[in-house]
Amino acid sequence: MQFVPTILCGGVGSRLWPISRQHHPKPFIRLSDGQSLLQKAMLRGAKLDGAIEVLTVSNRELLFKLEDEYREVNHAQIDTSFILEPFGKNTAAAIACAALHIADVHGPATILLILPADHLISNQAAFEQATKQAIHLANDNRLVTFGIKPDCPQTAYGYIEASKNNVLRFIEKPSREKAQAYFESGKFLWNSGMFCFKASTMITALREHCPDILSATQRCIEQSPLVKGRSFSQLALDAASFDLIRDESIDFAVMEKASNVAVVPCDIGWSDIGSWDAFSELLDGDENGNRIDGHAITHHSANCYIKSDSRIVGAVGLNDLIIVDTPDALLVADKNRSQDVKHIFSALKLQNHDVHKNHTTVHRPWGTYTILQESDNFKIKRIEVKPGASLSLQMHHHRSEHWIVVSGMARVVNGSEEIFVRVNESTYIPAGHQHRLENPGLLNLVMIEVQSGQYLGEDDIVRFSDVYGRA
Amino acid sequence: MQFVPTILCGGVGSRLWPISRQHHPKPFIRLSDGQSLLQKAMLRGAKLDGAIEVLTVSNRELLFKLEDEYREVNHAQIDTSFILEPFGKNTAAAIACAALHIADVHGPATILLILPADHLISNQAAFEQATKQAIHLANDNRLVTFGIKPDCPQTAYGYIEASKNNVLRFIEKPSREKAQAYFESGKFLWNSGMFCFKASTMITALREHCPDILSATQRCIEQSPLVKGRSFSQLALDAASFDLIRDESIDFAVMEKASNVAVVPCDIGWSDIGSWDAFSELLDGDENGNRIDGHAITHHSANCYIKSDSRIVGAVGLNDLIIVDTPDALLVADKNRSQDVKHIFSALKLQNHDVHKNHTTVHRPWGTYTILQESDNFKIKRIEVKPGASLSLQMHHHRSEHWIVVSGMARVVNGSEEIFVRVNESTYIPAGHQHRLENPGLLNLVMIEVQSGQYLGEDDIVRFSDVYGRA
């Protein structure tokens, strides 16, 4: 049976700060095998028999990063479509948009399989079995949830009381005592956030249980331009009308109220990697139970998780600690409080400090830049441009730029000149000069940029033309 | 009475890693008032009535750093002399060298006041009182120690059992029980490592208790060139003959054996800042007892010390932890194990890892360089040259260098050319070209250097001439 795996890629994952940031959220975290959670979710859906395309609902700012991620792993070249949100609006809006869009494009009888982008499922075979059952139930006009068999009395998830495929009731995150009782009874399942239904079934349910969300979503989609290519489509949601959709979870808006809900109990090696504690369990421990990703020296330390890309970590007399180091921010946390990392993220957001938002390496449609050092009157960046990519034709009022190519080859427009700059060559862009940087080659271009001037803000830029539509 | 404050600046202070490193040892650590421990020790001696010069015994590699440190604070322009060791050799050798040298230069009756470079003394008035008493006793041909009145039952120091100014016995670092008994009895003092004696008294004691050390030291000084200027002298100890001096502490070699030892009991606000725990106590705590030097966000954390120059630290659920962050290494340690930090240092030394030796910012006679990024085929440095300073005339076989001036002004010899490079100007030094960089100005020169080549080791350098004698 044909269906559309639909990846929900929203939310930040603030409990996984400092790796997770607003512009580099949790689904983009790479695991030790080199794949991101997002890539795993996409492949998980794409591999299923009958998947006709992969639809992704995410923030519009993340589009080029999503495309980069998919390009890396989409060897089977399944079609990829996107619904682009101007800002986050909970799961009811995202799922309503997806259902209406799929009904438009593929017909109302088309089945959607909703997969959050930031979960891990280790047993693909069991997952495939479960989706087959879910699609079967969805075809019978049921709204299908996936219920995970608990392996501990978790208090961080909602529960479903089930009898075979029938949902008896949905339960909010329980107290520790209740969680223990649910776990022991064997009749309760974790509510995983994965769903399966026909587009028409969901639209009917929305009409019945939250008609305001359905009608606001319909109006929003009417206002939103749809771009269609040979192997992709992009629906860019209109901000003003999107803002009018009520902020609600699909569980509360529909699932808990509908009578045609079903559940597929499954044991698929599921984890939502909700904290650094859960994340650390993906790694094997040493003889003292320390799990180390990077270079660390431990002394009288046990059961710690240490993640550091470049810095050396010395650990003395530590127990049950989490240490996560990044170029501009460091987390040290008690494992038993790893859920509380979100409070650090919130505090940084409140201070409007950039470390809640960006890494020192910033992704752009054309590649990346990394700030190596900043000072009052100069800034040094490492710029990496993808093969064939091009920055906008631009000009700065207050800063000059020295460019030194250290790998690959650059084509540079500098005022009225156009030149090639090779490895170990440099060029100089005076303030006020129109310029453009391109990588005409087949390898990545790596360039060191030294900016000099009295004002070095990213907003001192005039764009004349831009292949990514930013002019 | 005239005397020579003699600063012993040896040892690494490995318990204060990662701030303390082999080439940037503990005395160079700066406190929150901007002064280093070394500068404080030097001023402590220089301020005393009767100080005729300050003599420093230290490693020869540290000379230019010592001179820089002293220049910064030596407003009274007291003469500074140096005995330069080719490597560390414990306190007997250092003190024997100092005594013989001072006897030669100022006469055998001259008094030396031995001050370790890495201690803190908060009560200068009490210290002055104590030194007056010590000098008086030294003038009576006594070998004087300074005994600190204990304020807790420390196990990290040796003790002196005293009766007035008389030493009854020296005691090695005691067990916890014995330390408690000593502390309670009120008759015991900490052995501080500060001493006072006439040069001739020490020479006589060395002849009696360790004649081999005296004669080996005499032979070493005979082999060692003495350079004298108007306001300084430098005795550069000959490595081969210095190596023949027995490695011994002055306590074991002389003090514990001599009968003419005296002690000055004192309460001078002394600390040897022997660990991060002690170091942290220099800072005031917040309402949860957290002492924070840098930008940290704490959540359910208490009694922690967090030091971070540039990175943001998030602390969740931590108690009694020490977190010290530097550009290339991070320490996280239980306060109760802060003595054990030395094991991390030793492990890194064993691995021959550069983080036990250097910081990313390396001091040179002409200024500093900081490695901003390293890769296989390029390296980026921030180079800061002091006014009037000059690097050697040099050449590299395997790397080219791009230089961009971001502050100040450079004079550059590049092959047969000599040019000035101003702010926001650049120049290029091809591999194989003789070149020299100078700062002819009155302000610091700051330059970004991008090295490009297949081999980027610091040893790819041919020096043709060097004002610091390194050619």
TrEMBL record, chains A, B:
InterPro entries: GMPP_N, Man1P_GuaTrfase/Man6P_Isoase, Man6P_isomerase-2_C, ManC/GMP-like_b-helix, Mannose-6P_isomerase_type2, NTP_transferase_dom, Nucleotide-diphossugar_trans, RmlC-like_jellyroll. GO terms for biological process: GDP-mannose biosynthetic process; polysaccharide biosynthetic process. SUPFAM superfamilies: Nucleotide-diphospho-sugar transferases (SSF53448), RmlC-like cupins (SSF51182). Residues 296-346 form the MannoseP isomerase/GMP-like beta-helix domain. The keyword Transferase applies. The keyword Nucleotide-binding applies. Keywords: GTP-binding, Isomerase, Nucleotide-binding, Nucleotidyltransferase, Transferase. One of its GO terms (molecular function) is mannose-1-phosphate guanylyltransferase (GTP) activity. CDD domains: cupin_PMI_typeII_C, GDP-M1P_Guanylyltransferase. NCBIfam families: GMP_PMI. This is mannose-1-phosphate guanylyltransferase. It comes from Sapientia aquatica.
